Amino acid sequence: MTKVTILQFPGTNCEYDTEHAFKKLGAQTEIVWHKSESIPTDTNLLVVAGGFSYGDYLRSGAIAKFSPVMKAVSEYAKNGGKVLGICNGFQVLTEAGLLPGALMRNDGLHFISKHHHLKVANNNNIFLEKLNKGDVLNIPIAHHDGNYFIDSEGLQELHDNNQILLNYTDKDGNIKNPNGSVESIAGICNKEKNIFGLMPHPERAMELLLGSDDGVKMLEGFLES
Amino acid sequence: MITAIVNISLKAGVLDSQGKAVHHALNSLHFSGVDDVRVGKQIVLKLSTDDKEKAMSDVEKMCEEILANTVIEDYEIELV
Prior knowledge:
The complex is a heterodimer.
Chain A lengths: L2 E6 L6 H10 L3 E6 L11 E4 L20 H10 L3 E5 L1 H8 L6 E3 L7 E9 L15 E8 L3 E3 L2 H9 L3 E6 L15 E5 L5 E4 L15 H10 L2
Parallel strand pairs in A: 1-2, 1-3, 3-4, 4-11
Antiparallel strand pairs in A: 5-8, 6-7, 6-9, 9-10, 10-11
Chain B lengths: L1 E9 L6 H12 L11 E8 L4 H16 L5 E7 L1
Antiparallel strand pairs in B: 1-2, 1-3
């Protein structure tokens, strides 16, 4: 059975939604408190869940990167372990230097909470290989600091290595940028393609009754390979 | 005792949405003659050392490691 380990910092608030979503897909889950200095050895997927770790003090994700568990996360990732950062998890991974770039205040300055369409920009990676390039998914976003920034050199590198995985679009797949992100980027991976960060919340798109079940397709892919 | 004042601002070339909003507000209030506004933050540290060189190198390290995100921010340190 696939084992999903979910990190919990003070202020994390999406760990139980994430657990519910992966359990629904048949995975075994474990929530690990940030004070832990190790992560379970049978972990197949490590998730840094969404929320407001340390109240977003200083900068979103800035304090969490010094939590004891983050050393273990770096090691797990360095050894090729699969790491997923959702929303605040994405912010923590960029602050920790595990993903390039940074997430700034939304350009409209408002907190945005709504369903938004995303287009798969690249699928030649272990996370999105079950989806097709160009697929459009309807997945909620909920963030204040989702404005992805990277300098032009870094952006070129992302392009060269197919590290841009998701763009914000409209339902027809045309670019529609909610927060000012460079090139409407919603999710990226590292060069080695084993760390994936995205601002949208696939774990909140698991039931048609609640607006969309497109998260199922995405999360299912994370459990394979 | 040395006090270190750290001023952190977004790098030139990084869009400062808050600065823009404040600029817009100033214009609405008829404060003319403001060409640009940048919003930053200030962190004040009281250090136990009296050694200015050590203080500067310590605070620089703090800025690089946590106080600023050098992907998007610049910092200036003033010792008083």
